């Protein structure tokens, strides 16, 4: 079921953004924050993210999605021992399945702006607008730049390598009102 995939000889990233996710359960209790590094690149044929176990920072996993080679590359480190693997994915099929499963019934979440129109703040020198995202699982408040930040395409469906033109066309009603910028908070 899992097929090996070709990979590039190297993947170069221009930097990274640390994203901290904080969740609050239904009873209002805060869960421990989770930190992820989103690897930035000017090359839209791949994107990456890195996770470290907060309780064992010497254990980490870096995942690279390589759309050119239709591969997911996993780089793992466990107590100084390194390993890797690359598996083939049908990029178009997986994207369509994901968008169908995640967004078809929740198209409203991509179209929901702040309950207070025009709510803005500056984050790291970028003017951002608030978006309120609601779903069956709860709600989230997101601050998004007006225009995408170069090298940071992960949060903008219009410049995300995992979102093909075919997917954009198929779900045009959802994407037409989606934020175009980069997600900063």
What does this protein look like?
The chain has three helices and nine strands; from the N terminus they run ββββββαβββαα. Helices cover 12% and strands 38% of the residues. The chain has helices at residues 91-103, 165-170, 172-175, and strands spanning 15-21, 34-40, 46-53, 56-66, 71-78, 81-88, 120-123, 126-135, 138-145. It has a six-stranded antiparallel sheet, with no helix packed on it. Strands 7-8-9 form a three-stranded antiparallel sheet, with no helix packed on it. The chain starts with 14 loop residues before the first strand and ends in a 10-residue tail after the last helix. By secondary structure, the protein is mainly β. A hairpin with a 2-residue loop joins strand 5 (71-78) and strand 6.
Name the descriptors.
185 residues; mainly beta; 6-stranded antiparallel beta sheet; 9 strands; 12% helix; globular
Taking strands numbered 1, 2, ... along the chain, how are they ordered across the largest sheet? 1-2-3-4-5-6
Q: How would you classify the helix and strand content by structural class? A: mainly beta
General shape: globular
Order of helices and strands: EEEEEEHEEEHH
The major sheet is characterized as: 6 strands, antiparallel
Specify Rg, calculated over alpha carbons.
18 Å
Which percent band covers the strand fraction? 35-45%
Write down the overall mean pLDDT.
76
Number of helices: 3
Kindly report how far apart the N and C termini lie. 38 Å
Uncertain runs are: 105-111
Q: Helix share of residues?
A: 10-25%
Q: What is the strand tally?
A: 9
